[in-house]
Amino acid sequence: MNYVKITTTIKNKPPYFIGSQLRGALGYALKDVTCINPTAKCDGCFGIANCLYYQFYEEKNSFHKFRFDFKLGGEFYDFDFYLFDDATTKLPYVVSALYMMLTKNGLGSDKQTYSEFSMFVDDVSILENQQIKLLQHYTKEFQLDKICQDITLHFQTPLRIKKANRFVRGDELELKDIINSIYQRKMKLLNKAHQRFPYEIKGEVVEKNIRYKELVRKSNRQKTMMNLGGVMGEMKIKGLSKECFEVLKLGELIGVGKSTVFGLGKIKVEES
Known about the structure:
Blueprint: E1 2-10, H1 19-34, H2 52-58, E2 66-69, E3 77-84, H3 91-105, E4 118-121, E5 124-125, E6 127-128, E7 131-132, E8 140-141, E9 151-159, E10 162-163, E11 166-167, H4 175-189, E12 204-213, E13 216-219, E14 224-227, E15 230-238, H5 242-254, E16 267-271
Antiparallel strand pairs: 1-3, 1-4, 1-8, 2-3, 4-5, 6-7, 9-15, 9-16, 10-11, 12-15, 13-14
Helix pairs in contact: 1-2, 1-3, 4-5
């Protein structure tokens, strides 16, 4: 799995949940950066086949190869934006949009702009005198250097996984649900057909501390409040197989479940 990570830090107090704000603001900026249609309308546009804004925000029945990553209730803005697989080639457009989002378009209902902030690509600063200076080689490949059988799995933003056609809300969440969700997300990111996890799922859940976290966002397009609630907490697991551990570590990178583009499904694997 190839990926690139953009990290942005602003020393200002953010809302408790910044995912909806960031995704919406990036969309406006990305359209400004990429749109070549004088009407600025996607319907019937001659350029949608090669338009990154359309692919990320408007295209129906598509799988988005990006996600936001952050902690809830941070003291200041500190978020990552990941691009996966062939979307990594679009880094210049995304960085330009993020820069425009912060310096010209602004964040929040008051459209707050910023002149002082940090921006990194794979932990290397790309701002020089507040001007963008991109690296020539920035794509990384997901790799593991060790395997651990005993872990604590932390759900750091609401995890939205469906089971029996409804979202899991508590202790009914099982290891196999998480493994399968990550594996299917991997397949979609790599443009591969749906297939079952090819290994036996091995690992004993010895302790659960899971709760349902209510979370809503305002949809400006639909003029309504949307539910983004999911499960949070932790799960202690022993005796993981190599293949299951690898998938969980991949989940740290690509996210788990639905609405990862808003920053949901953030997990952390704590090795025992």
